[in-house]
Specification:
5-stranded antiparallel sheet, 23 strands, alpha+beta, 6 helices, Immunoglobulin-like
């Protein structure tokens, strides 16, 4: 017999007994200290005897999320026009800066076409030397690029222009923005291969849906950072987000990011399509109209706590939110606990990327009294997110698009949270 095996075993047993005794004592002390805070909470779920049987067959061909993870997109309010179909991202439950593909917001006014990628084609014509028709597979053979970009519908936060229209939750106030990793081919590569002619200055992008939402885009932007994307977060885009091909126009209004892309025509002027005149213009106080509101200005919103939430009582909370800018990257986010009277810097969570959502965090110890939470961001051009009063002073109240004003959430003494704009 090994002369050290028996003593070693005895030492291990003794150490195990001491560890268990200390654990019992620690458990009793913790139980005595947290009885009040644990009241009403259910006991932890016991571990199953055979974990391999809990989720059934583990070899499913496409993974499902847990049945306990129930976050879903929410449809547009009923007062929206019949032709307008949208699903809002639940910003208050998403994590990090990447929006899961299944929770990415959708605006599908003309329905969602059922497209066979093997039959789909992209035509590039107009003022080019070599018109070309490309299959999806031919596009995928070209040099690719992956980039994280946010998308935002220009109608995001349209409910917040007037108190009577204010929405109750952050999902409905700001949920028409999402952020993902997009993979595809740069549009500039395709246009160079087609041979853009000297006098060309715009393109017109057309989708394969029934909406008739063609968009004119300046050629300078098309040759800069626009993607013809066939990938979203590591897989093909979901049908509601443009399968099998879509444009991704970084930092620009959502309607410019044409889905189900089937044609790009190179032209010498804007074609003043249906969604450019008059439906995407904004009337100004003097009767003129803002047109071609391409770039989405810097914007932020506190996602937690936010409308519909309820705090469990005084104590520590981490205020969390998102900020983004169509002009570059977020440089600073400030948080106010008193409705904008005073401001303190929030922490920016890395990575901080250009033309992408940025997550911010702020440590807060709530004392149980009423509070009014706000955030404001500054991008790397120096642009500071305005208050609604500042925005209305310039734009008036005839606008329904491009509302990037500061959003407030009122925390009541009972812990309930509601939209401060209502």
């Amino acid at each position: 017999m090994n002369p050290i095996s028996a003593p070693a075993a005895g030492l291990r047993d003794a150490a195990r007994r001491r560890f268990l005794k200390r654990g019992v004592a620690l458990g009793a002390a913790l139980a005595a200290g947290v009885t009040g805070s644990a009241a009403g909470q259910s006991a932890p779920t016991p571990a199953p005897e055979d974990p391999s049987r809990v989720l059934g067959n583990p070899m499913k061909p496409y993974g499902d999320r847990s049945r306990f993870d129930t976050a879903v997109k929410q449809k547009a309010p009923t007062e929206m026009p019949d032709e307008w179909g949208g699903n809002f991202t639940p910003l208050d439950v998403t994590l990090g800066i990447i929006t899961p593909s299944a929770l990415h917001f959708e605006v599908c006014a003309g329905g969602v076409p059922d497209i066979d990628p093997k039959k789909h084609r992209l035509l590039i014509d107009g003022m080019v030397d070599r018109p070309v028709i490309l299959t999806v597979d031919e596009i995928k053979r070209l040099p690719s690029r992956s980039q994280v970009y946010f998308l935002e519908c220009e109608g995001n936060s349209r409910s917040e222009w007037r108190p009577s229209q204010a929405a109750p939750t952050v999902q409905l106030t700001h949920g028409l923005t999402s952020c993902g990793e997009w993979t595809g081919v740069t549009l500039s590569l395709l246009l160079r291969e087609a041979g853009v002619q000297k006098n060309a200055s715009w393109i017109v992008a057309e989708g394969a849906d029934a909406q008739g939402a063609e968009r004119s885009i300046p050629l300078a932007k098309a040759m800069d950072d626009v993607l013809v994307a066939y990938g979203q977060n590591g897989e093909a885009p979901r049908p509601g987000n443009g399968f099998p091909l879509r444009l991704v126009v970084p930092g620009w209004a959502g309607s410019a990011n044409v889905k189900w892309l089937r044609r790009i025509t190179v032209v010498d002027r804007s074609y003043m399509t249906r969604v450019e005149s008059p439906t995407r213009t904004s009337l100004m106080p003097d009767g003129t109209a803002r047109q071609f509101m391409f770039v989405m200005n810097a914007k932020s919103v506190i996602t937690s706590p936010s409308g519909g939430h309820r705090l469990g009582g005084p104590g520590f909370y981490e205020i969390r939110g998102l900020a983004w800018s169509g002009r570059g990257s977020i440089r600073r986010v400030e948080v106010s606990l008193d409705g904008g009277k005073t401001w303190k810097d929030a922490k920016l969570q890395t990575p901080v990327l250009r033309l992408a959502h940025t997550r911010f965090r702020f440590d807060w110890r709530w004392d149980g009294r009423e509070a009014l939470l706000q955030s404001r961001c500054t991008d790397d051009t120096g642009y500071v997110q305005p208050t609604l009063a500042e925005l209305v002073k310039v734009r008036g109240l005839n606008s329904i698009y491009n509302n990037n004003a500061i959003q407030g959430w009122k925390v009541a003494a009972d812990g309930s949270v509601q939209n401060a704009n209502s």
